[in-house]
Write a structure and sequence with these properties.
Layout lengths: L8 E5 L3 H12 L4 E5 L2 H10 L4 E5 L7 H10 L8 E5 L4 H10 L3 E4 L4 H37 L7 H15 L4 H13 L9 H4 L7 H7 L2 H9 L9 H6 L20 H15 L11 H13 L5 H17 L1
Parallel strand pairs: 1-2, 1-3, 3-4, 4-5
Helix pairs in contact: 2-3, 6-7, 6-12, 6-14, 7-12, 13-14
């Protein structure tokens, strides 16, 4: 029998059959759909096959413990936002610390009190709903950005290349993971503001008129405005707004100079230029790595780009080309 999709699904993993059945019964009486697991291994298999809104995991199970399963859930991009409640008979502080380090969202102590169980489940499911709505909004923005890219056959794959190479450069520079996540997102949405640019300007093969250039130079501001309501994109906003600034202050939209341009924006900018030079365009064929680097170094001498980033990218892309 097919389950009602409006009923949240909760995974209940416990090696004690009576405890497992009791938890499933309490949840089912409140309208939740439950997926029981006898141990950690079965919990992992079920998580791979059944989308769930929440997981209740007994800590002390044979083989894979609840802590092991929790770590796997939180390290997987597809399940890391699923709330995990660790159910334990242990009161030792160290065990709770290990649970927090594993990524647990909450704890329940055995014997489980029905009212406490239901209150925590309701609270975490509300949070999961808000998270799902946020993910949906992010997906809409990213889809919009990719639809803009799809209008121009010459930019196919540009966003994915920018995301990947920007993260590689940030990693080479030793930047923290949060900056890598920012650049991965920014690579996709950096040009989303071009949705407001008329196609006859966006796809024009020849030079732009001064009036057309004014229109195109507004796209970073419009992109920032589109993404601003998403709190999860707050670190991405400076990259969107400032990835067309130049070191000498001649860029747009704010004419920032040097270190005033955020480092993440300078990284994306450097990769963006390199990708543009090394892919075909309506007005020229793609340049080789050596030719692209020669062009970028000339522009560094003109005061446009960050010399250190250009050289680091050159070494990174050159090594990748040699390996290929």
């Amino acid at each position: 029998m097919e389950r009602d999709p409006s009923r949240p699904t909760i995974l209940v993993a416990d090696d004690n059959e009576s405890t497992r059945d009791l938890l499933c019964t309490m949840l089912a009486r409140q309208g939740y759909h439950t997926v029981p697991a006898r141990d950690g291994e079965e919990a992992i298999r079920l998580l791979a096959d059944h989308p769930v809104e929440l997981a209740l995991l007994d800590v002390m199970m044979p083989g894979r413990t609840g802590l092991d399963v929790c770590e796997l859930v939180k390290s997987n991009a597809h399940t890391r936002l699923v709330p995990v409640v660790l159910v334990t008979g242990l009161s030792d502080t160290q065990d709770r610390v290990r649970g927090i380090e594993a990524g647990a969202d909450d704890f329940l102590t055995k014997p489980v009190v029905r009212e406490e169980l239901l209150a925590r489940v309701r609270s975490l499911l509300r949070l999961k709903q808000f998270t799902d709505e946020l993910e949906s909004a992010e997906t809409v923005v990213c889809t919009l950005a990719r639809s803009i890219e799809a209008k121009d056959t010459y930019t196919e794959g540009h966003c994915d290349r920018l995301s990947r190479l920007s993260v590689d450069l940030a990693t080479r520079l030793g930047l923290p993971e949060e900056d890598c996540v920012t650049l991965r997102r920014a690579g996709v949405v950096h040009d989303v503001g071009k949705v407001a640019v008329p196609e006859h300007i966006l796809l024009k093969p020849g030079p732009l008129t001064p009036e057309e250039r004014k229109v195109i130079e507004q796209h970073p501001v419009i992109g920032e405005r589109i993404c601003k309501p998403l709190k999860s994109f707050r670190r991405v906003l400076p990259v969107i707004r400032h990835h067309h600034e130049k070191q000498d202050g001649s860029g747009y939209p704010d004419g920032l100079r040097g270190a005033a341009i955020p480092l993440t924006a300078r990284i994306l900018q450097t990769v963006d230029i390199y990708d543009a030079l090394t892919t075909d365009r309506p007005y020229r064929k793609a340049l080789s790595h050596t030719e692209a680097m020669a062009t970028m170094r000339k522009e560094v001498d003109r005061g446009w780009w960050d010399k250190t980033l250009v050289e680091e990218l050159g070494a990174l892309a050159g090594n990748a080309g040699a390996a290929a």
